[in-house]
Amino acid sequence: MLPTPFERIKDLIGKIHALEDKLMTTGILPLSEQAKIHEQIRHYKEEIALLERRTRKHS
Predict the structure, then answer these.
(1) How far apart are CA 16 and CA 23, in angstroms?
(2) CB neighbour list of residue 20: distance below 8 Å, 6 or more residues apart
(3) What totals of helices (H) and strands (E) does the chain contain, helices first?
(4) pTM assigned to the model
């Protein structure tokens, strides 16, 4: 069953928090790994923005 937009947003926020924790708590990460994490966070934030726009239109 497909998650609702609100469930998907909640899931994405959880993933962003996990990635931010990884950036903060791990030792020294290579710059390439940091860049990948930042890119993934950016992607998740874009998806959240898209879902928020979609849900606001229907509300």
Answers:
(1) 11
(2) 41
(3) 2, 0
(4) 0.84
